Structures are given as C-alpha cells and as structure tokens.
Amino acid sequence: MNNGRRWIRTAGVVVLALGLGACASFQDAAPKTSLLTKPASGLHFSSKDKAQWEPVTLPGKLRTAFKLEKHDQRDALSAHAQSSASMLRQRLNVQPAQLGRLQFAWQIDNLLAEADMGERDSEDAPVRLILAFEGDRSRFSAKNAMLSDLTEALTGEPLPYATLMYVWCNRRPVGSVIVNPRTDRVRKLVVESGPAHIRQWRQYERDVRADFEKAFGEAPGALVGMAIMTDSDNTRGNVRAWYGDIRLD
Q1: What average pLDDT score do residues 28-42 get?
Q2: 79, 126, 202, 241: least surrounded by Cβ within 10 Å?
Q3: What superfamily does domain 3-248 belong to in CATH?
C-alpha cells in the first residue's frame, strides 16, 4: 500500500470513529439539524425523537441499523451492527463555561469477543457516546495536521481538535483512558468493562470538564458535536445495543 492510500485509509477510519466529519446520508428520514446552543436549562436529547439526530454513514462501510423501539418498558434507540459502522450525531455550540454534568444510559446484548479498542485492526465497540471539541489546531503535530487537512478534503469538515468517547470495553478497567491507535486527538474513557452488566440498563453521570482534563491533560474548548455509534466493521461481528435519553446540564 503506498503512502497516499495509507493516509486515505487512516483518515477514513478516524472519521468513522469521530462521527463528525463524514458523508451524511438521510435515508433514515431524519432531517439535518441546525446548530444548537445550550440553553440555561441544559440540553436534552430524547431517544423518542429520532428527528433530532443526523444520520452519518461512512464511505465503503455498511450501515448500522438504528430504530426507535420499546425495550424493557422504556423508550430507546436501538442499534444493530452486523460488520457495519455508522452513527447518529448532533451539531452543538456549548462554550467551555457552560459545560456541566452529562447523563446518559445504554444497554448491550453482547460484547464483541475479538474487539480491542487499543488496536487499529480490531477497534470496535458495542456502544459509544462521542463528544467533539474545538481548539487551537496550530498545536497539532505534523501527522495530525496532515490528517485534518485530508479529512477536510475528503469530507468537507476538518478533524475536531479533540474527541472524547465514553465506551464499553471488553477488558480494560473502568476509568482507563485509551488513546486511539491512529491519532492521539481521539481518546476513549472506559465507563463500563466486561460482561457483568450486559442485558442491563446502565445509567451514568459524568463531569465533562473533569473527564476531558483527565483524558487530554488540558481544559476543554467548546463542545461542537455529539454522536452515538455502534460498530463491528473491524471484527466482522454482530452486536445489538440500546441508547436511552442523553442530558447535558
């Protein structure tokens, strides 16, 4: 594989992981949302209102199937990945001073046995909640600057300055930070690990600022995007998950 092709492949996978700079597909009948600014009462994304979410597909990837359904007597947005990867996203504009507590819930039916979130060829996850932040791109390394430029050329959007993912990992301890194997501008914080709580609703409350500082060692910039993603394209696996409401106060 020559250098150009290698960079294109790398950019495509990073874009996939971010869910914030890829080709949008509206075949799910969800309209593109306008920029949202956090009001005084906070942001609440209901799983009952799929129209709030912008579906995003990845070039050359099968789509994860998202749909609304009742699950365990509660409204949920289900995700079914079969050797696939896609996501739903929100465009935001939440300034650093307004970042507060993040609450979310999810459930998974199974783990992906071959997945390892620290390895580039098996970096899949049954559930992800993804936050993208603005910042000073002049601080990018030469590699990340090139990747950002190529991402923008391919998708029309640059690489976010920093992306924090909340993830369910197979084996790493809760609280671990996993640096993406392709770019250190994407870091994953493990909030659930192992099979002990599969097929159970899990509820979380996180301090976004503290989690960002733990992951990146600096204060966050503006929060410019949020996405949910269930993917199994690397491991060629089959996984089901459900997402509940998401609230940022």
Answers
A1: 46
A2: 202
A3: Galactose-binding domain-like (2.60.120.260)
What SS3 class is residue 232?
coil
Closest by Cα among 52, 14, 12 to 165: 14
Which of 158, 133, 137 has its CA nearest to residue 148?
Answer: 158
pLDDT at 44: 81
Nearest to 193 by CA among 170, 167, 177, 211: 170
3-18 and 142-155 helices, crossing angle to 10°: 80
Domain regions of the chain by residue span: 3-248
Cβ within 8 Å of residue 118, ≥6 positions away: 172, 178, 179, 181
pLDDT exceeds cutoff 70 at 13 = no
Tell me the C-alpha distance between 35 and 110, whole Å: 35
| 74 vs 200 pLDDT, higher one | 200
Model pTM? Answer: 0.86
Q: CA torsion, points 58, 59, 60, 61, in degrees to nearest 10?
A: 0
Let me know: does 135 contact 156? Beta carbons within 8 Å: no
Least confident stretch, 25-29, 83-87, 94-98, 233-237:
25-29
